[in-house]
Amino acid sequence: MRADRLHMRLADRARTSFAAAMSTMSGIARWAAHSPMSDPAGHAADLAAEPADVPALARIVQGVLVHLGWLDAYGLDASRLAGISRTTLPVADRLADVLRRDPRPLHEPRVPADRSPGTCRDYALLLCALLRAKGVPARLRCGFAAYFGPGWEDHWVCEYRDGATWRLADAQLDPPIRARLGAAFEPADVPRQAFLTAGEAWQACRAERAASETFGHGDEGTGLWFVKVNVHRDHLALNGRETSAWDGWRSAPPAARRMSDDELALLDALAADPERPLIERSPDWQA
């Protein structure tokens, strides 16, 4: 068996085992434990050495990552990063890349050119890992943000427990990006009206409180079908599957972008209760 296939099989087995373990945990404790993607592995000591408050942890993430879609905000030439994959890395691999580029402690900000390039999900995942390392229940949420422009843009954030309340944090919103967007709120406390989880977006569209065509990813995908993709991704993330086959939505042909009545019923149920035990379903274009 090829090494890459063996690695994928072992990774799938680890994710399946973790999802089964999560189903036996009670209450919010299920989100205080690392998932295979958030586990820092050999870098646990690096995370343990960092401060515990959420704004400080968000600043740490901002100081080690740079967003591939916002390079001009930092005066970086996009051609220097051509060919870099947008695939979300496990935190252990991400930290290895961060420290390879600059071996200083994580709380020491890097200049943008020396940061590890990633996407919104990498920001959310690294912040989630830092919070879990401090014993704070945290999880990734897939949904749509209203602060990037007109409409609701496909986006990932970190949701963390603050006492009896779940709060949203978007570590991607560092000073240069906040200045571009004119965002006045704190990245560690994103207003609920500024971000809808995929389930909330689905319910709003189904009840005709929102137009489905305003939800999506630029010109690459919009509408209720795209909301459906994120409903599945949010449900999977809440069960320790922060990446999945649903990330390949760009490859879905038009014929696969339809929904049956049975599927609508399943999506209604997932949207209403995304935290339910894992329901595995392959994307339509892989069926």
UniProtKB/TrEMBL annotation:
Domain Transglutaminase-like: 115-171
Alphabetical list of InterPro entries matching this protein: Papain-like_cys_pep_sf (IPR038765), Transglutaminase-like (IPR002931)
Cross-referenced Gene3D superfamilies: 3.10.620.30
SUPFAM superfamilies associated with the record: Cysteine proteinases
Pfam families given in the database record: Transglut_core
Domain of life: Bacteria
Organism encoding this protein: Labrys wisconsinensis
Protein name, UniProt field: Transglutaminase-like domain-containing protein
